[in-house]
Write a structure and sequence with these properties.
Number of strands: 7
Pfam families: adh_short
Order of helices and strands: EHEHEHEHEHEHHHE
GO molecular function: 3-oxoacyl-[acyl-carrier-protein] reductase (NADPH) activity
Keywords: Oxidoreductase
InterPro entries: KR_dom, NAD(P)-bd_dom_sf, Sc_DH/Rdtase_CS, SDR_fam
Number of helices: 8
CATH architecture: 3-Layer(aba) Sandwich
CATH superfamily: NAD(P)-binding Rossmann-like Domain
EC number: 1.1.1.100
Length: 254
């Protein structure tokens, strides 16, 4: 499914991995709808990207608001691709330093944002794709974002790792479930990526992180994520897969 002339929605599209993916969609000739929080700078970013980009405010945990944002993409010739990058972490442990139970609120917050938000992207995106005619035996594709923490979560990531492992678990099930509709589902599990959050770190901390990556020994580039995401959208035989994008890193306990 070549993306040229097709409509793709990218959540978290105003920054980081989402913005890099949006740039790649535009480079393929596709149209991109940036979906990000209402308070983001998505409108400004869309204008900078040019005519092929628009901004639609939407919180992925708010089903009605998010559905309305996806409708913006769907009205641009039919929604053919969703790349779901929106998500976050909140550090917590099973027991705190005093031995008291970790915060259920912090656990629920991350599960709701990362896992339920991903299911919203999956179900609401697929609902719109299912209305469309087939192109090369498919109607569309969804790319979700997990993390290497789904496999080797570190201490303090109990909520984040659980949410990302849930995304990995959904991938093959969703791909099988949506096969009859001609909709593919895949997931990218990035390692340590050079996002705006990591850009705030001191140089020595960044170098320490880079040293943990076997090859290439550096942080991942957002464009590498965006390139993989668009390749997945265009490769019609790639389905039900979680792909690690991590330079062969395996995270240590801390």
């Amino acid at each position: 499914m070549e993306l040229k002339g097709l409509s793709v929605a990218v959540t978290g599209g105003a920054s980081g991995l989402g913005l890099a993916t949006a740039r790649r969609v535009l480079a393929t000739g596709g149209n991109v709808t940036l979906i990000d929080l209402p308070g983001s700078n998505g409108e400004e970013i869309a204008k900078e990207l040019g005519d092929g980009a628009v901004f639609a405010p939407g919180d992925v945990t708010d089903s009605e608001q998010f559905a309305a944002a996806l409708d913006v993409a769907h009205e641009r010739g039919g929604l053919r691709g969703v790349v779901h990058c929106a998500g976050a972490g909140r550090k917590m442990r099973v027991l705190d330093k005093e031995g008291k139970a970790g915060s259920l609120e912090d656990f629920e917050f991350v599960i709701r944002l990362n896992l339920i938000g991903s299911f919203n992207a999956l179900r609401l995106g697929a609902e719109r794709m299912a209305e469309l005619d087939l192109i090369e035996d498919e109607r569309g594709a969804v790319v979700m974002t997990a993390s290497v923490a789904a496999f080797e979560g570190q201490i303090g990531q109990i909520n984040y790792s659980a949410s990302k492992a849930g995304i990995v678990g959904m991938t093959i099930v969703a791909a099988r479930d949506l096969a009859s509709k001609g909709i593919r589902v895949n997931t990218i599990a990035p390692g340590i990526m050079d996002t705006p959050l990591l850009a705030r770190l001191r140089d020595d901390v960044r170098k320490s992180l880079e040293a943990t990556v076997p090859n290439p020994s550096r942080l991942g580039r957002p464009d590498e994520f965006g390139r993989l995401a668009t390749d997945i959208l265009e490769n019609g035989y790639l389905n039900g897969e979680t792909i690690r994008l991590d330079g062969a890193i395996r995270m240590a306990p801390r």
